[in-house]
Backbone:
């Protein structure tokens, strides 16, 4: 069954979700306040890098099943409204900034004159959905006939299309005292995945909100756990990769997200654990999440560690020394540089006076916008040419597949810090490089 669907916010989440909804057969309008973004999407182009998304957007813009606008009134008649706007960290605080979500509700609710369902997808502090549900009923001409549920999103950048079309689970939070038609409409929206047996969990609003932040807190904890062990490996000469393989064979532990290195960044994990801690404080249970302070601290120490390693490799004299930083995105297959460990390391070395040359296959534009004073190279070889140190900060395939023999010919000194433990250490060593991994016996 085809529904009329709107998606508020057309960033990494919203544009991907809108395209996914069109692919599932729904009639979709994406709404954003960023006129330039809307104009690009309306031409069938994608203003950011997400594999598979340009094909989907151009296909459905061409069929007319997917439209984009800055005018919320064009979305007023939708059967289901999704909210996918940003919930960034507040400046100077760890709490989430909810002003964009609030603005969507305040703009949309007065337009709702008939029974409608709103599904929030943005990641929000627990308690937000109940507050918004009450506000929407107060502001909407249709009043109690407007139902708001929370349907958190778990997609990973770089795999956004796949995760949207074939999610590993669907979670729907509803107000059990005011269920309305939320579940019925969500079952129609996601009929394809539910029909394939995808777990569909219906919970209360608070549980759904908490599922999302708990999942991200767990992933962040897993990464910081292995990075803490990497610190011990460095102190003892043990190898964290062999260790991760060994513990990962235990199915209760699992090998995924045990990649030691520069740690986590991006527009989700760092700000989500901080917002979660802030919310726990507001709820008077800050001790419950005290461990997340350490998760954050371990993570930030990884960046310090790489900067310290770089200084050490250069004999403590960083000023004017040429360093190649390969990678600017927070992870491969993304152009996202939000809270990117790679760019943070490059920026810090730059501020220390090093002559840093950055190269990233997709994130150069965003990196230059975030750090206009950094030097950006034309390619990997250009970045490495004449440098005394190479830091691999994002594990792009291009860097993993690089020929260490060729790069040794163009570098001034053959020293590499593998900030993501992604290189073939033996091949690089055989090519004459001094190889330094993260938590590996090469220290
Ligand atoms: N990026 C991901 O992989 C991902 C995955 C799961 C959940 N999330 C969550 O989804 C939300 C969005 O994240 P994102 O990465 O897509 O952010 P983003 O910054 O890429 O996109 C947010 C968009 O919302 C738009 N916007 C702001 N105010 C608006 C308004 N009043 N009306 C319409 N549009 C408005 C902005 O212009 C922007 O285009 C966040 O809560 C995030 O935590 C993101
Ligand atoms: O073993 C690992 C795995 C990941 N990372 C880093 O962790 C960060 C986050 O990676 P990933 O989780 O793949 O990226 P996101 O696209 O930010 O996705 C996370 O955040 C999204 C937004 O909330 C959620 O929807 C996803 O489920 C959740 O994985 C990146 O900097 C990675 O380099 C590691 O350091 N080691």
Residues:
């Amino acid at each position: 069954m085809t529904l009329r669907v709107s998606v508020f916010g057309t960033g990494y989440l919203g544009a991907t979700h809108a395209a996914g909804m069109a692919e599932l057969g729904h009639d979709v309008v994406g709404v954003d306040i960023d006129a330039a973004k809307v104009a690009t999407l309306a031409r069938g182009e994608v203003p950011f890098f997400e594999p598979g998304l340009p094909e989907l957007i151009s296909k459905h813009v061409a069929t007319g099943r997917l439209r984009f606008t800055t005018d919320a009134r064009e979305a007023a008649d939708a059967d289901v409204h999704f909210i996918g706007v940003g919930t960034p960290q507040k400046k100077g605080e760890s709490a989430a900034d909810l002003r964009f979500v609030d603005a969507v509700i305040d703009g949309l609710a007065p337009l709702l004159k008939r029974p409608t369902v709103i599904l929030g997808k943005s990641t929000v502090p627990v308690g937000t959905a109940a507050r918004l549900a009450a506000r929407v009923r107060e502001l909407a001409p249709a009043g109690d006939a407007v139902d708001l549920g929370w349907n958190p999103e778990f997609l990973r950048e770089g795999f956004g299309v796949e995760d949207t079309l074939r999610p590993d689970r669907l979670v729907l939070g509803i107000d059990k005292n005011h269920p309305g038609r939320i579940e019925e409409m969500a079952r129609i929206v996601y009929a394809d995945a539910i029909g394939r047996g995808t777990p569909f969990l219906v919970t209360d609003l608070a549980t759904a909100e908490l599922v999302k932040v708990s999942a991200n807190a767990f992933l962040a904890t897993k990464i910081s756990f292995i990075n803490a062990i990497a610190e011990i490996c460095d102190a003892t000469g043990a190898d964290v990769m062999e260790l991760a393989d060994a513990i990962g064979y235990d199915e209760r532990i699992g090998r995924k997200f045990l990649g030691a290195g520069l740690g986590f960044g991006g527009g989700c994990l760092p700000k989500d654990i901080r917002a979660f801690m802030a919310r726990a404080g507001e709820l008077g249970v800050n001790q419950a999440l005290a461990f997340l302070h350490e998760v954050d601290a371990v993570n930030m120490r990884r960046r310090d560690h790489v900067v310290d390693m770089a200084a050490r490799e250069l004999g403590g004299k960083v000023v004017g020394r040429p360093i190649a930083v390969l990678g600017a995105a927070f992870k491969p297959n993304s152009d996202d540089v939000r809270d990117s460990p790679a760019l943070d390391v490059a920026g810090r070395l730059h501020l220390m006076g090093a002559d840093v040359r950055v190269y990233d296959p997709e994130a150069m534009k965003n990196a230059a916008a975030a750090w206009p004073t950094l030097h950006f190279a034309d390619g990997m070889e250009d970045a490495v040419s004449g440098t005394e140190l190479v830091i691999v900060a994002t594990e792009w395939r291009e860097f993993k597949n690089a020929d260490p023999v060729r790069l040794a010919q163009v570098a001034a000194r053959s020293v590499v810090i593998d900030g993501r433990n992604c290189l073939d250490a033996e091949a690089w060593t055989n090519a004459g490089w001094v190889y330094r991994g993260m938590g590996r016996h090469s220290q």
In short: The first helix runs from residue 12 to 23.
